[in-house]
Amino acid sequence: MKEFLLILFFGKSILLSPTPIILNNSITLIPEKPISAITSGASLEIEVSNIIKKEKEEGILEFRERISKLFPANFIKAILIQKDGKEIPLTYAGAHSFNEESTRLSLYSDNGVPTEVDFSKVVVTSKSSMENIKIHWK
User: Fold this and answer.
1) pLDDT score for 6
2) Do residues 39 and 122 touch, judged by C-beta distance below 8 A?
3) Cα separation of 137 and 12, whole Å?
4) Contact by Cβ (8 Å): 125, 81
5) In the chain, at which end, N or C, are there fewer CB atoms within 10 A of the end residue's CB?
């Protein structure tokens, strides 16, 4: 219940790449202000709406399968870096979300993201180039 209330009242999504970017295998992002996690389930979301969108006549299962084929598990990884250099790895294990306007791939930490810790840098890597993506911290 506590986690739910924290997310409800304090949760927000921070756009780390205000304009669409090209991810050429690796990119380092330095947020204007350090980012932190409200709960251990915090995630990095890669918006790939310019690469893949659900077609109106396409069923949900078919679209999920298309996402999985285009972006298999471990296609994208990220590292959250604290000011002291400590790193928290994030992995894309196939989790994604979508609606009529947006398709996002979700990256999570296997052991949870530590709360009340500031991260000053995010390094995102992918197995191939991705164009016109946006990166969100949630």
Assistant:
1) 38
2) no
3) 8
4) no
5) N
Q: How far is CA 17 from the centre of its chain?
A: 11
Kindly report the pTM of this predicted structure. 0.88
Q: What are the mean pLDDT values of the chain's consecutive 10-residue runs (138 residues total)?
A: 40 82 94 93 96 92 96 97 96 94 96 94 96 95
User: Token digits for 72?
Assistant: 């298999």
Phi, psi (5° rounding) for residue 76? Answer: -130, 140
Report residue 65 as tokens.
Answer: 């399968």
Phi, psi of 64 (to 5 degrees): -60, -40
3-state SS, residue 61: helix
